[in-house]
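[Help] Beginner question about ligand-bound structures

Sorry if this is basic. My supervisor gave me a protein sequence and a SMILES string for S-adenosylmethionine and asked me to "get the holo structure". I don't really know what that means in practice or what format the answer should be in. Inputs are pasted below exactly as I got them.
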Amino acid sequence: MNAFNFFMRQQVKKAAYKMGLWATEYPYFCSPLHLASFVNALEDLKHVPGCFVEVGVARGMTTRFVAEHIQLMNLDVPYYAIDTFSSFDPDDLDFEVKNRSKTMWEMQVFWNTYDKFVKDFKEFEFVTPIRADIKKVDFAELPPVKVAYLDVDLYQPTKIGLEKIWDRLVPEGYLFVDDVLDNNKWDGAYQAYMEFCAEKGLEPQVISTDCGVIRKPSHAQTPIRVVAS
Ligand SMILES: C[S@@+](CC[C@H](N)C(=O)[O-])C[C@H]1O[C@@H](n2cnc3c(N)ncnc32)[C@H](O)[C@@H]1O
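Answer (accepted):
No worries, everyone starts somewhere. Holo just means with the ligand present. The predicted complex, written as structure tokens, is below.
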């Protein structure tokens, strides 16, 4: 941006602020404690090799926050940003309607696009966007995961996502799940999280209002990366 454009932009912002058109706002989908926990988990596992996986990235608000931390602290952490980039999978929506008493109209549609996401993150070379349905992602192609954030709202992708990430999670790795709150339109994530914890014999732990936390036991086996020959 040249000096003139920069100056004009500042003037427009200043005028908009004074006219009350531009107020400070919270741009993130998740709470401050969610975001702080991701950063703390990365700091906690600073010396453990592994990647960060975010499943369900929308327009990349959390991605940007965490990527900023990785870059600022010069951490060697590849970041995989997985999303359909075309909102919910119709099969997952059908499941909510047929099995979980939801209505189609209450399921909000996301309008992120892959091309815009790639463009927005081109300065962050360690961020790899993956356009895929989580149910079809082969995690054996990714490095072991040390921190993951699963934020796909509905029952099916959350349940399957939990199983896939768990298999790639390093011992002591962190797995965070959004929308772990009962009796609301995204309570499919809650049901999946609670079932998964029960099946694995894990104590459910919810921080902030709705962030489910899973920590893999330290005695678990380290996943091995499978490299295609
Ligand atoms: C609540 S938004 C994610 C918000 C983001 N984590 C953040 O903090 O800014 C949910 C995202 O999940 C994606 N999604 C939903 N079902 C999916 C699936 N089966 N596989 C991959 N992504 C999915 C949607 O496209 C949407 O972008």
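A couple of things worth pointing out: The beta strands are 51-55, 79-83, 127-131, 145-150, 169-177, 205-207, 211-215. The radius of gyration is 19 Å. Feel free to follow up in the thread.
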